[in-house]
Design a protein that fits this description.
Number of helices of chain B: 14
CATH architecture of the largest domain in chain A: 2-Layer Sandwich
Oligomer: heterodimer
Number of strands of chain B: 8
Distance between the termini of chain A: 12 Å
Radius of gyration of chain B: 19 Å
Shape of chain B: globular
Strand content of chain A: 15-25%
Number of domains of chain A: 2
CATH topology of the largest domain in chain B: TIM Barrel
Low-confidence stretches of chain A: none
Distance between the termini of chain B: 81 Å
Largest interface: A-B, 37 and 35 residues
Helix content of chain B: 40-55%
CATH superfamily of the largest domain in chain B: Aldolase class I
Order of helices and strands of chain A: EHEHHEHEHEHEHHEEHEEEH
Strand order of the largest sheet of chain B: 1-2-3-4-5-6-7-8
CATH class of the largest domain in chain A: Alpha Beta
Order of helices and strands of chain B: EHHEHEHEHEHEHEHEHHHHHH
Strand content of chain B: 5-15%
């Protein structure tokens, strides 16, 4: 039986997620909740036959038995309040904001580690795109310092992202450490207004200590890219990964080499056009997590 | 006997001169400033009457990274040295949202920095709201800084500048980060912004088309009341508006800069030039940046990538221009270099 779920937040992320949930056999979207009945997201939800209440989290409080899991695609500040309410109602929260109240989940790295958690955090779009690469390196060698640079088209960055840009960098950097396995992580985000809009780009740099098996690093990266591409079909290497010679005076100490991984994410074009790979990677990852939780619920209940 | 003018009554000045040798100049020395260099430069500029001295990694606070180059010395140590060395000058720091966070701003405020320049690509002003508001809450002067302003029309820039003003910016700057603007283009933008804003305007010029001083003077004539310079023009790309040349031209035109031109000449010659790895000239790559409208700090990164992958620096810069990359996308330099190298290899393989 499919798990009844709702989306709260009818912006870019929430609306894209709606389209992806339509294709899920294990998750049954009951309601798309917003705060503006006239918003594009709620209008589309109504057109597609979903409940589309405009009274925000209140709707969940009024209908606590209607859903078992809520995808929160509002903003970091708003999710802090929602997290508390959902926890009290016993409803699992999959948090697509950078609020990071619960454990962080990156499907290709730690999908099954937090299936019983009341609240899991999807990190950020850039975190979903780059943490697997750091994990790929850190399963081969010690990573004293890792860094990611994410460039997204201006059109694909909604007001939530724009107001939460510090939360993006903090949460992403922590994910590189906690899940990627880097000793120190740093995150950078750039908005690019070029027309036509650019595809989402992500670059990962990892410092490589003396004695690292470079071939093993490169092979591990290529293999992890394939793992992520299983749930984000537009995720790919723009160039083969390269090892560059330093030395580099990183915050984690001087290293002789770095690996540079140049990635591109083309979206599925569900809501925004294909340039918005940053939406896809978040929503596709969230569906993975939701489905894993649903399967886990079936086994345990 | 007259007392030194700087210590007595406030000097009448026609505009405010902000020196960025220790921030934008940092690009030109690959972010290798030492505490001793910072101390000597601040002492010189401070004694010459510069009112605001900006210091940070070239890409702003938190810029020390793989992507932009690691600083030799922790920037907080350098900031502290600058604060210690200044007697009358205010110390400013630049911050790019997306690279640094308000935590960095709080840290430098605690050290004694009183001016926050919040820099953003000129179409994305709305990502600065958090940072400008917090700078104001911390009791700092907040300057909103629109980079790459050659890509926007005067009216588009005004919309973005008004956003900065609405968040609480005390001054708005437009930066010609690629050194790509002609004097007429500067005049048009400054006139529109001065006419449409309540707060003062500033202009940050680069030398790629050899117009930095001329553009700064034109900006003044159109009503800009803040101008940026760096000692000996030390800076990204072909360099910045040289502070001492700007001061000299102002003297000759009867514009009161309020700084001691001869003392600035000494700082440039005796303190800054000896530490410059290369003189700031408009060479092929420098001119190409301005010609193609490419972010100035890409210059040295592109040179290194060209050497590493055996491809042409000029081709890298032109391709970056064609891709419309913005400031901060230094990773695309590697992307372009690797791609060019691959195409070369493929072409050789087929012949």
């Amino acid at each position: 039986m499919a798990l009844p779920v709702a989306i709260i937040g009818s912006g870019n992320i929430g609306t894209d997620l709606m389209y992806k949930l339509e294709r899920s056999e294990h998750l049954d979207l009951v309601a798309m909740i917003g705060i503006d009945a006239a918003s594009d997201g709620l209008t589309r939800a109504r057109e597609r036959g979903y409940l589309a209440p405009a009274n925000g989290i209140e709707w969940v409080q009024q209908n606590p038995a209607a859903v078992r899991l809520v995808f929160d695609a509002t903003s970091a500040y708003v999710h802090v309040r929602h997290a508390k309410i959902l926890a009290e109602l016993g409803i699992t929260a999959v948090d697509l904001t950078p609020a990071a109240r619960g454990p962080k989940v990156i499907p290709s790295v730690n999908l099954r580690e937090h299936l019983d958690a009341p609240n899991v955090n999807m990190v950020t779009c850039g975190g979903q795109a780059t943490t697997p690469m750091v994990a790929a390196v850190s399963r081969v060698t010690r990573v004293p310092y890792a860094e990611m640079v994410s460039t997204v088209s201006s059109k694909s960055a909604g007001p939530g992202t724009r107001q939460n840009i510090d939360e993006f960098t903090r949460t992403t950097a922590r994910a590189l450490e906690e899940i990627g396995g880097a000793e120190i992580g740093k995150a950078i985000i750039i908005l690019n207004p070029a027309e036509p809009p650019i595809l989402m780009r992500n670059t990962v740099y990892c410092g490589l200590p003396e004695g690292t098996d470079h071939d093993a690093v490169l092979a591990s990266v290529v293999s992890m890219v394939a793992d992520v591409a299983k749930y984000v079909p537009g995720y790919r290497l723009k160039q083969p990964p390269v090892i560059e010679e330093g030395p580099y005076n990183t915050p984690g100490g001087v290293v002789p080499h770095r690996v540079v991984v140049l990635l591109e994410v083309e979206g599925a074009g569900d809501y925004l056009p294909t340039y918005a790979g940053n939406l896809d990677i978040m929503t596709a990852a969230a569906v993975q997590v939701g489905e894993a939780i649903a399967a886990h619920h079936e086994v345990t209940t | 006997m007259t007392a030194p003018s700087i210590d007595a009554t406030p000097v009448k000045r026609d505009f405010r001169l902000i020196d960025s040798t220790l921030r934008d100049g940092s690009h030109a020395i690959s972010h290798q400033y030492t505490v001793d260099q910072v101390t000597r430069i601040v002492r010189g500029l401070d004694a010459a009457g510069i009112q605001v001295i900006e210091i940070a990694h070239g890409d702003g606070l938190g810029g020390s990274s793989f992507n932009y180059g690691f600083s030799a010395v922790d920037e907080m140590e350098l900031v502290a040295a600058a604060v210690d060395a200044a007697t009358q000058a205010q110390i400013a720091c630049l911050l790019l949202p997306g690279i640094a966070t308000v935590d960095d701003l709080k840290r430098v405020r605690d050290i004694g920095v009183s001016v926050a320049r919040i820099a953003v690509h000129c179409t994305e002003a709305d990502i600065t709201e958090q940072h400008i508001r917090i700078a104001k809450d911390l009791g700092m002067e907040a300057i909103g800084f629109l980079m790459m302003s050659h890509v926007s029309t005067p009216d588009e820039l005004l919309v973005q500048a008004k956003l900065l003003q609405s968040y609480g910016a005390d001054t708005v700057y437009i930066a010609d980060s690629a050194g790509a603007m002609t004097t007429n283009e500067v005049r048009a933008r400054v006139a529109t912004l001065v006419g449409g804003l309540d707060v003062p305007l500033g202009v940050h010029a680069h030398q790629n088309l050899s117009l930095a001083v001329a553009n700064s003077i034109a900006a003044y004539e159109e009503g800009a009341r803040n101008l940026d310079g760096t000692s000996a023009g030390l800076g990204a790309g072909a360099g910045n508006c040289p502070t001492e040349i700007l001061a000299a031209v102002c003297d000759k035109q009867g514009i009161v800069s309020g700084v001691d031109t001869l003392m600035l000449l000494d700082v440039a010659e005796d303190v800054v030039r000896p530490i410059m790895p290369r003189q700031q000239v408009v060479d092929r790559a420098g001119l190409l940046l301005g010609y193609a409208g490419v972010y100035g700090s890409f210059l040295l990164h592109a040179q290194r990538a060209a050497e590493r992958y055996g491809v042409s620096q000029a081709k890298i810069l032109l391709e970056l221009g064609a891709r419309k990359v913005v400031g901060g996308q230094e990773d695309m330099i590697i992307d372009v270099a690797v791609e060019l190298a691959r195409k070369h290899a493929e072409a050789e393989g087929t012949t």
